[in-house]
Design a protein that fits this description.
Helix content is 47%, strand content 16%. The chain contains 11 helices and 11 strands. The protein has a domain at 2-42 and 181-337: TIM Barrel (Alpha-Beta Barrel), CATH 3.20.20.30. By secondary structure, the chain is an alpha/beta fold. The longest helix has 26 residues, at 234-259. Strands 1, 2, 3, 4, 7, 8, 9, 10 and 11 form a 9-stranded parallel beta sheet that branches. A two-stranded antiparallel sheet has the order 5-6. The relative contact order is 0.14. α1 runs parallel beside α11.
Length: 338
């Protein structure tokens, strides 16, 4: 069972320089407390994501941590030239001596793609081409490619990834069909869906993994993403989490509100409704441990990516939550999964 933290690096209400420094201090705590990984989202022109260049932010993470694995979840290759992205990936992997985890995806927020003057209808093909180029670039000495949207003319890959043949990939898994590619390419997968929905692609992943003759012990991470806040009591956790969730939710819809476009995502406006839908787990260590044990067992997950730093959570409250999770939740979940 693996445990990481997912972070939008969304607006906390702090001045921006202080916002980044506070995040980095909490990421240092993740390293110190024994979490396996840290993952940051990529968003543009919105309060939801104040790290629109994951590589820039993660270069600081590489220098402020010693053992923590880290990476984007996800890079949006359609917004880059793939060769520029490949070189950034190699730099980060070398700078961290092999701790980079590379999340890749099409990106569900089409309104941000339009900000970059990219037709959202072209994104699937752009993504397919970019993925082919990146796969070449991270494993070959030369890249030569002709596509509809990208052309690469005998590009020498002077930079190499530290990890061979390439850094591990991550993917947001939503359908059983997508699980086939993930299993074939040994990709770590995460689902933001409820346990019953997540179970279908996770089961398909295992089925494909078995067909390939691979060992169950070598299975990549199949993780559930949940908002998680831990405090000494249920009442304290709910008091802390409620306003923080509302701040995060308002940041999520902020750009849509600015553009006058109906918000298309199924995130309710209250923490209570989010918890009722199964997407937030808030409470004492025992409450969180028991809820996550049931959730991971029902989904067939072998990992958790906790959304544990979000909204207006104060540094002290977020740090206490991480400390309680590491000391009292993780050991119980590992024992239950053994």
């Amino acid at each position: 069972m693996k445990f990481g933290v997912f972070d939008h690096v969304d607006d906390s209400g702090l001045p921006q320089a202080e916002h980044y420094e506070t995040r980095l201090r909490l990421i240092e705590a993740l390293d110190r407390l024994g979490f396996d990984s840290y993952h940051t989202a990529e968003h543009h022109g919105t309060n939801l994501g104040l790290a629109p260049s994951p590589s820039v932010f993660l270069s600081a993470v590489a220098q402020r941590t010693q053992r923590l694995k880290f990476g984007p979840l996800v890079y949006l290759p359609a917004l880059y030239h793939p060769m520029r992205l490949a070189e950034e990936i190699c730099m980060l992997d070398q700078m961290s001596r092999g701790r980079l985890q590379v999340g890749l995806g099409r990106g569900a927020v089409w309104i941000e793609q339009k900000i970059y003057d990219i037709d959202p209808g072209t994104v699937p093909e752009r993504y397919r081409e970019a993925l082919e180029i990146l796969t070449q670039a991270l494993s070959q000495d030369m890249v030569d490619y002709r596509g509809q949207y990208y052309a690469v003319d005998k590009f020498p890959m002077v930079l190499k990834p530290y990890q061979r043949p390439r850094p591990p990939f991550w993917y947001g898994l939503s359908s059983p069909e997508s699980a086939v590619w993930c299993a074939q390419n040994e990709v770590n997968a995460v689902s933001m869906m409820g346990a019953a929905v997540a179970k279908r692609p996770f089961d398909r992943y295992r089925e494909e993994w078995d067909k390939l003759g691979r060992k169950a012990s070598d299975l990549p991470v199949l993780g559930l993403n949940r908002h998680i806040v831990v405090a000494d009591t249920d009442a304290q956790a709910l008091k802390i989490a409620g306003p923080a969730y509302l701040k995060w939710r308002n940041s999520f819809s902020w750009l849509w509100d600015q553009k006058g476009v109906p918000f298309p995502f199924p995130y309710p406006e209250t923490l209570e409704a989010h918890m009722a839908a199964g997407f937030s787990i808030v409470g004492s260590p025992a409450t969180v441990r028991d809820a996550l044990a049931a959730d991971t067992a029902a989904a067939g997950a072998n990992g958790v990516l906790g959304h544990m730093i979000f909204g207006s959570l104060a540094y002290e409250d977020a740090l206490r939550s991480l400390e309680l999770f590491a000391a009292q939740v993780i050991p119980g979940l590992k024992q239950a999964a053994a």
